[in-house]
Each structure stands twice: as C-alpha cells, then as structure tokens.
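Student: I would love a firmer grasp of how sequence relates to backbone shape in proteins. I am handing you a single protein, as its sequence and its fold in token form. I am told such tokens are a discrete way to write the fold. I hope you can help me see how the letters and the tokens relate. Take your time, and here it is.
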Amino acid sequence: MRRQPPVRDIDENELEVHDPKTAAAGVKAVMVSMDRGISQAGVGRTVRSMLRVNQRGGFDCPGCAWPESITGARKPAEFCENGAKAIAEENTLRTVTPEFWARHSIEELAGKTEYWLGNQGRITEPVVIREGETHYSPISWTDAFDLIGEHIRATTPDRCVFYTSGRTANETAFMYQLFARSVGTNNLPDCSNMCHESSGSALNPTIGIGKGTVSLEDMHRAELILVVGQNPGTNHPRMLSALAECRENGGRVVAVNPLPEAGLMKFKDPQDPGNLLRGGAQIADEFLQIKVGGDLALFQALGHLLLEEEERVPGSVVDHDFIAAQTDGFEEYREARRRISWEETETATGLSRLEIARIAGMLAKSKATIICWALGLTQQPHSVNTLREIINLLLLQGNFGKPGAGACPVRGHSNVQGDRTMGIWEKPKEWLLEAIDREFGISSPRHHGVDSTETLEAFENDDVDVFVSMGGNFALACSDTEALEAGMKRAGLTVHISTKPNRSHIVHGRTSLILPTLGRTDRDDKHPGGTQFLSVEDSMSVVHSTQGRLAPVSEHLLAEPVIIARMAQATFGDGHPVDWKAMAEDYDVVRDHISRVLPGFENFNERIRHKNGFVLPNPPRDTRSFATDIGKGRFSVSPLEYLQAPEGHLILQTMRSHDQYNTTFYGLDDRYRGISNGRRVVLVHPEDLAELGYADRDLVDVISTFKGTERRADKFRLVAYPTARGCAAAYFPEANALVHRELVARESNTPGYKAMTVRFVPHGEPQLS
C-alpha cells in the first residue's frame, strides 16, 4: 500500500535533539532503506530495483559516484542507505499531475519547503506558466519545444545559459554541450563549479589531470589513508567498506574533520554478520578535530616534519629518484617548509604540535599513502592552495603510479565527473573545440562562458534571457539565495528538465517550462531500434553502462537525449549539420561521435558493453608521468592562510543532513548527529555558546559579514554540539543565503560554503544599520 505525499510541512517547533551516534550503518540503515523504498514505490518496484543497482548490467545509483569493483565479485547489496533513499524517490508511485498544478498556485508553493515539494512525487506531463499567470498548466511537447526555439532565436547566444546537474549521463551531457555550442555559447555552468572545481584548479597545473589517481583496489592496498574534510557515513557510505578493508589488510586510517562524524569512527557492515556481532569495525586510527579552514596549515606542518625527519635520517622519507626524474620545484618547496611557526599553526588548526607530529610519523613510515578529500577542503578562499599542499606531500614520497598510493578527490553526485569529461565546462580547451568542429561541421565559440557564480551575477544584472537546467535545483544550490531568486524571476524563459518539483520551479522566469524526464531506474524503450542504455563515469575514472528496467510512471515522459534533440531541432530547423534525430533514436550514434572526439573513448560502443566497462587513461597512475605544461609534476609554494573570526563571531560551514542528498530532502532525521524533525539549526560547541552568551536551543537570527556587507537568515535554533572550538555548522541549503557571492575560492570561483564569518542575535532583534 503506497503512502500518500506529506500534507504537513516542516514544523521547526518539533525539533528533537539526541546524543550523536558513534557508528554508521548497521541494521537500522537496512530498516530505514526498506521502509523508504516500500512507502514510496511498493514492495515489487523496490525489490526489482535493489537487485540491479550498481550491479553489472544494471543501473548506476543516482546518488554518489563511489565506484564498484571491476575485478572481483560484488556484494548482493551494492548500495547504501542514502542510495536506497535516492532510488526510492525516483521509483516512487506518487505523481504530480496537471491537477496538482491546478490545485496549487505559485504563491502557495512559494511557502512550501523543499522537503514538501520533493516528496509530492514524479512529474507526469510538461507544464508551462506565462507572465501574469498564477498556475502552471499543461502544454504539449511540440509546443514546449517551439517555445524554447522561439526564445533562443529571439536573443543572442551569450544571453542563454545551459546548466547541468551531475545526474546527467555521458551521452546526454555530450549532446547538451554540443547543443549549447551550436547555439553559440560556452555558458555551461554545472554543479562541479560549486563543489570540486577547486580540485581541478589545483590538480591540473600540478599533476596534469583534474581527476583522482587511484582505483578502488588501491584503497584496499594502501598502508595509510588520510580522509580529510568529508563525511563518508552520509555522503558516500560505501566508502566505509573500502576503509574497513584497508584496515583489515594492515593499513591505517586518519580522519581530519571539524565534526566527529559517526562514519569516521566505526562502521557496522549490515552484510557482514560477524562485523555486527563485534559491534562494528573501527574506521579511524586517529581523529584530528581540526578547525574549519585550518587544513592548509596542517599540510604545511606535515611537510615541514617530513623534511625534518629526512634530514635526520637521509633516505628514510623522501623519494629522491622520483623527484629528480619526474618533478620540478622541490628545492623551492623544501626551502619554504624549512621554518614553521608552531604557535600560529596551532592557532590555525586547533591542533597541538604533538597531534600533528603523530600523523607525520605515520606518513614517514608509510610506503603507500592515499589522501582523500571532499567539499570540506574545496569551498574556502584558499582551497586551491590547500589542495596544492596535498599534492606536495604526495610528490614528496613518490605516492603516484604505485599500488595503494595517490590523490583521491571523492566526487559527489553520480557522473558529475563524467559530465566534465564530456565537455560540460565554461572554459573549454582548444583541442576539444577543434575536435567538435571537425566531427560535426560547426563553429564552436572560443570565448569562455559563465560558471555557476557568474550565472548568479548574470541573473542579478538581467543578462539572462534563456536559462535551461538539465536536472538540478539551481536556485537552492547556489550562494546568495535572495539575490539569485530575484534575478531568476526577471529572466525571460526558464526551462527545467526535471523528475520532481523543486524550488527552482517556483522562482521561475517570466515564462517557465517544466519538462518531465526519465530517471536512472526507468526503462527507455521508445526508440525505433528498441530499448537504449546510457553510460556514466565514477569517481575513479571507470566508465560503465547504466540501464533502467522499471516502467515509467507516465507515458508522457521523454528521455533526456530525446529532449535535447528536439530542443535543437526546434531551435535550428532543417539543414543544421548535426543529425540530432539520429542521436536521439540510437545512443550508439552518440557514442560513435564521442569515440572520435574524446581521447580514451576509442571503440566506445564495443568497450562499454564489457561487463565491467573500461578505465580511462590516467598518466600519473598508469605511467607515473605528468601531462603538465612542463611535462613534470609540480611542487608549489603557498603562503600560510587560515580563517579567523573576530571577537563575538564564529566560522560557519554548511553540511548535509543524513536524510538528504544535495538539495533533495528525503526526510527529517539526521540520525547520526541526533537531530530530527527540523533543519534550521546551528551546531555550536557548548563553550562557545557560553562565551557568546547563549544557551542550548536558543532561537536566533544568523548574520554573516563579508567585506563590510551583511547577509541575514532568520529563525535558527542553536544546538550544543562537539564541534571544533570557534566553528559552527548548519545545513545546506538553508544557510546558503548567508554566503556572499564574492566569498569564493580563488582560481576556481567556488562559493565559500565552508568559510562564513557569522554572529547571532536573538530572533526578531532589529538589525542595526
């Protein structure tokens, strides 16, 4: 019996706070997974999908990008609790029909939370709202595409923006970037701009590739893994299995994070009865509770101590042969790390010299080290320099191109890495544009487009006439929420290719379309050649197929490649050099084009049909070489930087709840942190609360300060929590309104979600001018 969508919305007065958990997963995770699936989709659809998720010949989980084994057997359940929630949301039998839109005006929907909107179900038919109207209403697919074509032709290319969510498959992403460049623009912002752009900005100049350099098997074989600025228990729980296996094989794990997350402490593997009987497996051998923004200081200190140990015992730490043959800049790096201020280092990190020295000792002894990181390191002004320091440490000990060693940026959304590989980027390389033009006979624009933050500014400056969103929820994902929403409402046309309602549909342009599409679990069989499949790239550069088998909830849904092709046909008409129809009818045609455009995809159609897919080339991993501009790995020197809050302020970071994925809220239970039935909370150390004159559960307004300007977010509940001193944490996207658009990571322009300087005032207290 399927459960109906929630009638009541979030009531923050019902907030409950319990003690945080000290272990992740376990039997509770299994129970929650099954409950969410059955309540949304029933027993049959839930079981059929769970048996195929992340299995060979099945579909790729629409959640995170953590890889599966390509050499060994896979577990019967190759998914985690949050993956099960993501699948349940997509499999749901709840539907959003034209009657829903007729029943709810935009004014009413604007007062609903993302939790309520997303839980209404799958959108069944295309709908439109025009200037002056109060409700969305049905529109035919043909009329919708004609409307898009009219608006694109009526403006100039650079006033059109094409946004991409990480859920987009490879073939879809390739067609989408081809459509944008055929229109005449490189305005291709994507969710990577807001997440891991700093990683690419740091890795490309230093090691010649913007991706990680390890495999899943390397994780198992490492002697030491540093997990920095990430919460695998919630954001990519299957990583816990890899960390546990590393420790079983004799490796050690160090966790570095401002919050003592459950998944960093212990893992209760529900597929291992022995593990459950033992109370779970330890994950972190050491936990460093670092201050937000203190990681650059930590890595510089570790480099200093490793070089100091090398001087004491020559040949014990530094891989001199590797450095001489494959790197540049070592002498400058060694000189820069020769001296250190331990007083300032301890201030920046919140760690003692003894704690840091203990980790340096582990690094010195390890002959195969992997350093993993996620958004805790990528969303601060000095993020790129922080990541360069990670590369310095790895180069120092030769931790590239050997088993169990390397750099591991842990990507978030499934296929966000593949989208970039396919050409979704506002700053394309000339070789890519030349290859596209040669393959299709078009003339791609050469000037750079706008990224996500620049798109926000374009909206505010009324420089956007057409905004097309391939999945995602741009209004909630971006920073400076109030300014962005106001700008989106003034745009000429917004187009959202979506599966479920979200906030971006409500803060729409003067004219707006919602185009419902198939999801990962849906069968895609409306093609002359029969059922089609797509492909994705995981966080470790493995490309494999994905194919849904469930009947779609509506006959009116179209696959994303078909939607792109029909947008293009309606925009360009007959005579365009690209055969859009052929690609929409047979995805093999798309893959043939990709094989001739992108290096590493030769014989794409043959190789993608292998049960394990194939691994893309990666010079640092494969040949211990670096395709930088100098042909070597590059040491770099950065000044010491860290985040400092003035008196009466804290440094605030955003984070996900355990019951959400990006801007999608599955429920209201952040189980591991002990927070439930509410989301407008700020976690603060009890001693910081006392010093600031507040008590646990006080209701406050949060004010951020940046360059003399302020942003305000009202009605947050303070919760005493064991965070790092001087730091606080609040949920994304509720706290996004506090991020000034100019608070970004240098070089990457990623919003500073982990770098806000905030103070509190009692709720309702007037703001002083």
About this structure: The longest helix spans residues 27-50.
